[in-house]
Design brief:
single chain, 283 residues, alpha/beta, Aldehyde Dehydrogenase, Chain A, domain 1, five-stranded parallel sheet, three-stranded antiparallel sheet, 10 helices, Ald_DH_N, Ald_DH/histidinol_DH, NAD/NADP-dependent betaine aldehyde dehydrogenase
């Protein structure tokens, strides 16, 4: 019996629930720490970033209208599907980062647990981010968090999977849609995660994944008028002060580079507070 040829995986972008190649046709080589060729990754362009923002804007309203309970179910489903593909992600992380299978497995397990943790916050964060305010008068005054809208994210660059999950998951909890620039050095797991999201009831366009150069893509996202917030978690290696200045022109919320810690405060960072006055019953 003749030996089969292997079928190498093609890694593309993830935009609007589809997996297109970059409109520019550009790719770049991804190699192991020892220089062994692993795959060609799509090198996203300015046009790809614009397409991703448009897809996120189209999808965001529907995601925000879903009940908190439903969003929690969807995020939990992501964890379930990721658990079922654990071996694939371990293999990709070993190849990209040159770590042991045990270290890669721990990263995947932590990523799975993080999806579960944030799923549990979907119907609880409002109790922390919102408030019943004391007022002098026959009124209730209620502050309630709402999603900011479209969040552009530069993912942490030092990990293939966990850093990406640590910034995408909290943005989704409140009903935001995201455009995320994955780790330039370790992009393969990001596109595999996008495949998981596409089969986990996450509506198309809610998460859009770009691979390529954060230094090239982040300025366009920071200046884009239809992006409402900017998470610069992985932008410490580029001129992120200029990104903040560009974001200020369109009054974006900005989260500066720094350690990413799982916290309900990270959810609240991408919410707006709506205050409602309601008269008390006079009966």
């Amino acid at each position: 019996m003749s030996a089969r040829l292997t079928v190498p995986k093609t890694y593309k972008l993830a935009i609007g629930g589809a997996f297109p190649r970059s409109e520019s046709g550009r790719t770049y080589e991804v190699a192991s720490p020892k220089g062994v060729f692993l795959a060609n990754a799509a090198q996203a362009s300015r046009k790809d970033a614009r397409d991703a923002v448009k897809a996120a804007r189209t999808a965001q309203a529907g995601w925000a209208k879903a009940t908190a309970y439903n969003r929690g179910q969807v995020l939990y489903r992501v964890a379930e599907v990721l658990e079922g593909r654990r071996a694939q992600f371990v293999e990709e992380i070993v190849a990209q980062q040159g770590v042991s299978a045990a270290v890669a497995g721990a990263q995947v397990d932590e990523a799975i647990d993080l999806w579960v943790w944030y799923a549990g916050w979907c119907d609880k964060y409002a109790q922390i981010a919102g408030n019943l305010n004391p007022v002098s008068g026959a009124y209730f005054n209620i502050s309630a968090p709402e999603p900011t809208g479209v969040v552009a994210i530069v993912a942490p660059q030092e990990s293939a999977l966990l850093g990406l999950v640590s910034v995408v998951a909290p943005a989704l909890v409140a009903g935001n849609a995201v455009v995320v620039v994955a780790s330039e050095q370790y992009p393969l797991s990001a596109i595999s995660l996008a495949e998981v999201l596409a089969t986990s009831d996450v509506p198309g366009g809610v998460v859009n994944v770009l691979t390529g150069s954060p230094a090239e893509l982040a300025p366009w996202l920071a200046a884009h008028a239809d992006v409402n917030a900017l998470d610069l978690a992985g932008a410490g290696g580029i001129d992120w002060v200029d990104l903040q200045i560009a974001a200020a022109d369109t009054l974006k919320r900005v989260l500066a580079p720094g350690e990413v810690v799982a916290s309900p405060q990270r959810i609240a960072a991408f919410t707006e507070v709506k205050t409602v006055w309601h008269p008390k019953s006079m009966v």
